[in-house]
């Protein structure tokens, strides 16, 4: 008889969700974690980064309060207090992810590494553990680029960035994706010099170019410098000029230019944590992107094994490194692994992605470029500028816009937003796309006034305006006015 019903490898967002649901349903669960409970999101990702951004945004609001008639002295950045805020946020959330909580749910929590011994067995801390089902939720790690000289200079990732005892004098960030851009703005607003190097022609290369242009300009106003479309070819150590000055790093670019900084942050992507699992012993197939699974997240080669979160590579759609995907995967697993419901599939059609800068950049569904790549014809774009939004005007932030992508029949394919707190609109668009609601549902929605979300409603209404104001409708109204 197996030792446990469900063995979960990894106590990050995905693993914790699966373990909690399984235990609450009465199954015998072993939760295995070799590092810190809560994984990347709690300790090195979502929580500390958003806490740091909150401090940075407070400093920015103080600097620009004069737009509202409030004159304040330049903010004084207390780095120790900022760090205390970041660590305090982690500490306050940590009990939800703690070993004590999961033991109280009935899980056996094991602090050790795990690797497969057989298709139905793991070695965990020197112990053989057999299982009915195993869920691999080992997550991902920062991708280490192959850059000449990298082994000779100090560098940071999101796993070490929040440990800095002093603020960086000049932070060089390699990578213009969400992590790179968020940390660029956070440190710039906290008084650091920041340069972002992106080999692709544009930062946030996957997003709508029109919205990216507005974000780039906002970050430049904060003092962030960009080097886009140029490759980092090497890094060199920068010797300290005095005992009071710390050593740093020099970034050598393909165009021959050199950028000297005090710190280098690597933010070029994520890699699945596959090393050490001995997947071959478990007959678990993998790809370069993670564990090979079917669309129900079940291993393609071992029917006892499922994968969730960053490490899952569902066939045909690939991995997604978002914490909210971990929650989605947990829901799929409940139906697929626990209730054995047929036709359970992961679907990313309504998956939101958010870059938590200020303004925030949101995309739900397809961008115009993605729709064109899929051969979708008759595309229509409906937009509404926040310069025409009453709430944005009242707050002195009339910047950004909502862009809705429609097919030839007026059905919503995707939505992009650049606006303060735009992430709060993502759920509305996700519901629209996930439930395949008609655009009229958004256009007819009753929203509280004034809110930024009204821009989304106005963008939808733009689709119907030409029909509403057509000569035929005007003629009908002219005739109807004679009725009693």
TrEMBL record:
Residues 352-459 form the Pyridine nucleotide-disulphide oxidoreductase dimerisation domain. Pfam families: Pyr_redox_2 (PF07992), Pyr_redox_dim (PF02852). It comes from the Bacteria. Its cofactor is FAD. Coiled coil: none annotated. Gene3D superfamilies: 3.30.390.30, FAD/NAD(P)-binding domain. Keywords: Disulfide bond, FAD, Flavoprotein, NADP, Oxidoreductase, Redox-active center. Residues 5-329 form the FAD/NAD(P)-binding domain. InterPro entries: FAD/NAD-bd_sf, FAD/NAD-binding_dom, FAD/NAD-linked_Rdtase_dimer_sf, Pyr_nuc-diS_OxRdtase, Pyr_nucl-diS_OxRdtase_dimer, Pyr_OxRdtase_I_AS. The keyword Flavoprotein applies. Belongs to the class-I pyridine nucleotide-disulfide oxidoreductase family. This is FAD-dependent oxidoreductase.
């Amino acid at each position: 008889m197996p030792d446990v019903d469900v063995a979960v490898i990894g106590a990050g967002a995905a693993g914790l969700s699966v373990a909690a649901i399984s235990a609450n349903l009465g199954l015998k669960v072993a939760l295995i974690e070799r590092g810190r409970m809560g994984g990347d999101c709690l300790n090195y990702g979502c929580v500390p980064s958003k806490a740091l951004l909150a401090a940075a945004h407070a400093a920015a609001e103080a600097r620009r309060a004069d737009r509202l008639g409030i004159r304040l002295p330049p903010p004084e950045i207390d780095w120790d207090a900022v760090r205390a805020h970041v660590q305090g946020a982690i500490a306050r959330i940590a009990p939800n992810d703690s070993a004590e909580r999961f033991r109280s749910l009935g899980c056996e929590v094991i602090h050790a590494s795990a690797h497969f011994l057989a298709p139905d067995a793991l070695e965990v801390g020197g112990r053989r553990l057999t299982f009915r089902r195993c869920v691999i939720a080992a997550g991902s790690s920062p991708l280490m680029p192959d850059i000449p000289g990298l082994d000779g200079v100090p560098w940071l990732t999101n796993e070490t960035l929040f440990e800095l005892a002093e603020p960086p004098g000049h932070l060089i960030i390699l990578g213009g994706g969400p992590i790179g851009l968020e940390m660029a703005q956070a440190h710039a607003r906290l008084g650091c010099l920041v340069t972002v190097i992106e080999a692709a022609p544009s930062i946030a290369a996957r997003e709508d170019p029109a919205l990216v242009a507005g974000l780039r300009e906002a970050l430049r106003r904060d003092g962030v410098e960009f080097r886009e479309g140029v490759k980092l070819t090497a890094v060199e150590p920068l010797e300290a000029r005095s005992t009071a000055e710390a050593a740093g790093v020099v970034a050598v670019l393909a165009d021959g230019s050199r950028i000297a900084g005090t710190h280098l942050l690597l933010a070029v992507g994520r890699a699945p944590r596959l090393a050490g699992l001995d997947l071959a012993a478990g007959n678990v197939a993998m790809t370069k992107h993670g564990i090979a699974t079917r669309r129900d997240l079940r291993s393609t080669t071992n029917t006892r094994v499922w994968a969730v979160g960053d490490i899952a590579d569902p066939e045909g759609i690939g991995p997604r490194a978002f914490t909210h995907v971990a929650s989605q995967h947990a829901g799929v697993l409940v139906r697929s692994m626990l209730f054995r419901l047929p036709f359970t599939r992961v679907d990313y059609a309504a998956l939101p992605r958010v870059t938590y800068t200020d303004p925030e950049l949101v995309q739900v569904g397809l961008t115009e470029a993605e729709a064109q790549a899929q051969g979708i014809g008759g595309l229509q774009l409906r937009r509404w500028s926040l310069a025409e939004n009453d709430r944005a005007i009242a707050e002195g932030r009339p910047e950004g816009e909502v862009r809705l992508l429609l097919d030839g029949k007026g059905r919503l394919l995707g939505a992009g937003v650049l606006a303060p707190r735009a992430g709060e609109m993502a759920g509305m668009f996700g519901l629209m796309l996930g439930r395949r609601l008609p655009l009229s549902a958004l256009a007819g929605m009753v929203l509280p006034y004034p809110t930024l979300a009204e821009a989304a409603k106005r963008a939808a209404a733009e689709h119907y305006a030409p029909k509403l104001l057509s000569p035929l409708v005007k003629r009908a109204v002219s005739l109807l006015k004679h009725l009693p």
